[in-house]
Write a structure and sequence with these properties.
Blueprint lengths: L5 E6 L7 E5 L6 E6 L2 E6 L13 E3 L2 E3 L6 E3 L18 E4 L2 E5 L1
């Protein structure tokens, strides 16, 4: 298995505060969410039926899936109804106004 690496995802200024942007570093469907100046990176697929979360609704630090209203904490990936279920989250860093995701 290859070691995880940092991959460029987006220019920071392309992600306004309180917005979401789907990106595909190395082909992975990742959703970047900027909330109150902090960027979170989660899988862009719901744990229920792999519905695209980019079409969902952001409520505070919760993303609600547009297909069946499953709600996840964007900081931890936890499904709010059953914390043993979660979507993957990704480490990220911002260097020189570029957002990199560890994949």
């Amino acid at each position: 298995m290859s070691e995880a690496s940092w991959v460029f995802a987006i220019e920071e200024d392309q992600l306004p505060n309180n917005s979401m942007q789907a990106v595909f570093p190395k082909g992975l469907p990742i959703l970047l969410i900027k909330r109150e100046g902090k960027i979170c990176a989660v899988s862009n697929k719901c744990a229920h039926m792999a519905c695209t979360l980019a079409g969902g609704y952001l409520e505070g630090y919760t993303i609600k899936c547009p297909c069946h209203d499953w709600r996840f904490d964007i900081r931890t990936g936890e499904f709010l109804t059953a914390k043993e279920i979660r979507i993957p989250t990704y480490e990220l860093r911002v260097l020189e106004k570029k957002v990199f995701v560890k994949v």
